[in-house]
Write a structure and sequence with these properties.
The protein has one domain: Orthogonal Bundle (Helix Hairpins). The protein is built from 2 helices and no strands. It has helices at 18-33, 39-81.
């Protein structure tokens, strides 16, 4: 993955992992807060941040669905054991 251009990784993901995306978002935020981003880079950084935020939201939603599925399976197996 190439952070400077905001390119997607070889597998098509915006970031390698949730942690990598959060880390890059933190780096962008620090650069913005420190005034290290010039006007020419600002739109690019905002666009990249948007991609990373969407990626993180998708990861969280996916994890939430997996947890609900597992809990549902556990509930179903627990109710079957009591009979």
């Amino acid at each position: 993955m190439n952070k400077s251009t905001g390119a997607k990784s070889e597998n098509g993901a915006v970031a390698e992992s949730y942690e990598a995306a959060v880390s890059e978002l933190e780096e962008i935020l620090e650069n913005l807060q420190d005034g290290e981003v010039n006007v020419d880079e600002l739109a690019q950084k905002v666009d990249r941040s948007s991609e990373l935020i969407k990626f993180c939201q998708e990861k969280i939603t996916s994890a939430e669905m997996q947890v609900k599925k597992i809990v549902g399976e556990l509930d179903a197996s627990s109710s079957g054991d009591s009979e």
